[in-house]
Amino acid sequence: MPAFRLHYFDSRGRAEIARLMFNAAGQEFDDVRYSKEEWPAFKPKTPLGQLPVLEVDGELYAESGAIFNYLARELGFYGNGNIEALQIDIVIGIAKDFYPNLLKVFYTQEEQAKKELIQKLVTEDATQFFTKYEQLLKDNGSSYFVGNGLTLADIVVYDVIEYLLPLRADILEPFPLLQANRKTVESNPRIAAYLKTRK
Amino acid sequence: MPSYTYHYFDLRGKGETCRLCLAAAGVQFKDHRIDHAAWPGDYKAATPFGQLPYLEIDGKKFAQSGAIASYISREHGLYGTSSLEALAIDGVVGLVADYYSLWAKAYFEADSNKKIDLQLKLNNVDLPNLLGILEKILAGNDSGYYFGNQLTLADLSVYDILENSYRDFSNIYSSYPKVVENRKKVAALPRIAEYLSKRKETEI
């Protein structure tokens, strides 16, 4: 296994999925975090002037999606075989369609507009989004999205829902399989330990 | 070899990269193109999630254009020769997806003033940014492909995303000669050339 350093801001954001995978795999990595003041000095060293960046034996790689897929491959969270990888990518693709709606809420400053966006997010958007996931869980028949074990798919969905729960606590109520999947992820021993200590 | 049927609208849009991958792979596939007038109806009901595209592999249905393109690329040697190369390829695919979102926002904007602003930003800022990065990657690789010594999903994704601007705003490309060279190289590959020669022209 190469030496891994993950570079990001001091928050969850677009790096948390990578952190969850490292922890779930019990894989050592340098969790490098930049404050607002420290970031400008590192920025020109990054491939695209953005974070996260994954350093693999000293080489820097950008693009969070690419990084997650790479780590999933290396750490054993990409399923068995190409069809399972395809199924994992489908779960991620659905999440990617959903992220812009989520980001819009966070970037909207005006209170009334923000309220309206949140309302739409936690009702229409979330329902559409979760219905697809509930169907996939039903089709797979285990408490995981793909196969019989933890994959990047479970971790990505876990991460997205983390942002929605504070906006609406009962958002998973109509989705029993999603609830069960979330419990499964949370009770994974290494992830449980990480969640207890993470800021 | 499994039997592939690819379902998408009768245009390039979000679905063309997958078609390019299938063509590059040299596999037989049914290219099912759905007329907008006939959509949604029965066609929508037949999809996994009410959206296009989806790929049928021996009758089993799989959605999400990105997932499909990755799958075909893995199956047919279009993903480079190592996990790190795949990481680099995915990096470019991610950039292309980011640019697609910006393009789509501009293209589908209903308010004509906003649309003009978005289109200007696209051509003056977003596209040159993307082309600059791509030119830099190509400068670091002798083969003329983005990564390694042969065609990968990176070359095909880029080929596809630049189609509209290359056609409509070719003057922008004069500052990015390696990008243009790569584009010509990809288009001249036998399977791609054959596919492109038969492909109908669509606005998007």
From TrEMBL, chain A:
Gene3D superfamilies recorded: 1.20.1050.10, Glutaredoxin
Molecular functions (GO terms): glutathione transferase activity; structural constituent of eye lens
Record-annotated GST N-terminal domain positions: 2-79
GO BP field: glutathione metabolic process
Domain of life: Eukaryota
Family matches, as SUPFAM superfamilies: GST C-terminal domain-like, Thioredoxin-like
Alphabetically ordered keywords of this record: Eye lens protein
Domain GST C-terminal, chain residue ranges per copy: 81-199
Pfam families named in the record: GST_C_3, GST_N
Similarity comment text for this entry: Belongs to the GST superfamily.
Protein name: Glutathione transferase
Originating species: Patella caerulea (Rayed Mediterranean limpet)
From TrEMBL, chain B:
All residue ranges annotated as the GST N-terminal domain in the record: 2-80
GO-annotated biological processes: glutathione metabolic process
Pfam families named among the record's database cross-references: GST_C_3 (PF14497), GST_N (PF02798)
Start and end residues of each GST C-terminal domain: 82-204
MF GO annotations: glutathione transferase activity; structural constituent of eye lens
Top-level taxonomic group: Eukaryota
Keywords attached to this entry: Eye lens protein
Record PANTHER family: GLUTATHIONE S-TRANSFERASE
UniProt record similarity statement: Belongs to the GST superfamily.
Name of this protein: Glutathione S-transferase
Lineage, top ranks: Eukaryota, Metazoa, Spiralia, Lophotrochozoa, Mollusca
